[in-house]
Amino acid sequence: MLERLSWKRLVLELILCCIPALILGAVVGYLPWFLLAAVTGLLIWHFWNLLRLSWWLWVDRSMTPPPGRGSWEPLLYGLHQMQMRNKKRRRELGSLIKRFRSGAESLPDAVILTTEEGTIFWCNGLAQQLLGLRWPDDSGQNILNLLRYPEFTQYLKKRDFSRPHNLVLNNGRHLEFRVMPYSDNQWLMVARDVTQMHQLEGARRNFFANVSHELRTPLTVLQGYLEMMQEQTLEGPPREKALSTMREQTHRMEGLVRQLLTLSRIEAAPTLTLNEIIDVPVMLRLVEHEAQTLSQKRHTLIFDVDNTLKVRGSEEELRSAVSNLVYNAVNHTPPGTEITVRWREVTGGAEFSVEDNGPGIAAAHIPRLTERFYRVDKARSRQTGGSGLGLAIVKHAVQHHESRLEICSEPGKGSRFLFVIPERLLARKESE
C-alpha cells in the first residue's frame, strides 16, 4: 500500500512540478528550459531529502525520523516502523538470551559452549567454580589449553560422544563430562560433579565387604559343626560345646543383623519432629539393670542420674544411643573397671556421658571410631560379640537430636563418651 502510494506521489510531484513550467513556457517561451529547471529543482529536493535520510541513519541514529513531505513521507515512516520492529526483535532476542543464561546458571551442572575446535565462547558460573574457568577472560581460549588432561584430550579428539567421560581432577574431584554437538560446528559440554557418588559407591562396596566378612566367620563355624554332627554322633561334653558355640555364633549374627537394621532405620529418617517426650531417668534405670546383668559384677557401675530431666525426641533412637555407649563400656573394658554414667543438666542443655578408668584409646583411632565396622582391637571385639556398628548408631541418633558425639580418651587413663541435648529440647519432670 505504501509502495503504491509512494509511486503515485512521485508521479504527482513530477506533474505538479512540470505544470508551472509548461504554463510559463507557453506564455514566455523557452519551454525546454523551464521544464529543465523544474526537473532539476525536483532532483535537488530529492537529493536534499536523501542527505537528511543518510544523516538520520548513520549519524543521528535517533528513534524519530526527520519530517518528510510528499513521496518521502511514507518512505521515512516505513523505515521508522522497520527500525521499531528490529528494536523489538532485538529486545526479545536479548530477553531470550538472558533467560537462557539465567536458566543455565541455575543448572546443577557446569555448562560450556565451544566450537568443534574447542574454542570457548560461553560458560556458566558452576563451570568457573568446578573447572577454574574465568568468564569473560577465557572467551576465545581453547578448552584443551585450560584442562590439560591427556585422557580428556583423547576423548575430544576421538569425537565419540556416545558415552560420558569420567575425569579425575588434580584436586581429587570426579567429574562426568558429556559432549553434545549442536548447531553448526558447535559443542555443548556438560560436566557433573560425581565425587559424592564415587564416595558413596566406595562406602557401599566397603560396607558389603565388611558385612560379608562379619557373617562369614559365624557361618563357617556353624557349617563346620553341622558337618561334624552329620558325619559322627556327638555325645557328652563335645556335643554341649558344639551346641554352645553354635548358639554363640547365632546370637552374634542376630546381633549384627539387629544392629544393621537399627542403623539403616536411623539413617533412613534424616529428620524428626522431636515432639515425643522421653523419660530418660526411667530409660536409664532399665539400661542400668541390663548393664548389671551384662557385667556379671565384673565392673563397678555408677549411675548418677538427674531424675527431673526429660527431653523431646525419638525414644527408640535415644535409647539406642545411650544403651550402645553403656554396653560398649562394659564389653570393651577389663574386669575391675569403674564405669560412671551421668545424666545431668549443664550450660546449654542436658549432658549424657559414660566414663571409665580402663586402658583408654590411642588418639590415632578416635577419628575413626564412628565408622561402620571399625574396631580398635578386632580380636577382643569378636570375643565380646561386638559388631563395630554401635558408635555409628550413636553418631546418627544424636545428630537427629541436634547434638554430636564427643570422645575423649588417653591410653592408660580411661575414656569418656558424651553428648549434650540442646536446651530447647528439654522437658522437665515435675518433682514428686
TrEMBL record:
GO terms for molecular function: protein histidine kinase activity. Member of the two-component regulatory system PhoR/PhoB involved in the phosphate regulon genes expression. PhoR may function as a membrane-associated protein kinase that phosphorylates PhoB in response to environmental signals. The chain crosses the membrane at residues 12-31. The gene is phoR. This is Phosphate regulon sensor protein PhoR. It is found in: Cell membrane. It comes from the Bacteria. PANTHER family: PHOSPHATE REGULON SENSOR PROTEIN PHOR. Pfam families: HATPase_c, HisKA, PAS, PhoR. The keyword ATP-binding applies. SMART domains: HATPase_c, HisKA, PAS. Keywords: ATP-binding, Cell membrane, Kinase, Membrane, Nucleotide-binding, Phosphate transport, Phosphoprotein, Transferase, Transmembrane, Transmembrane helix, Transport, Two-component regulatory system. CDD domains: HisKA (cd00082), PAS (cd00130). Its EC number is 2.7.13.3.
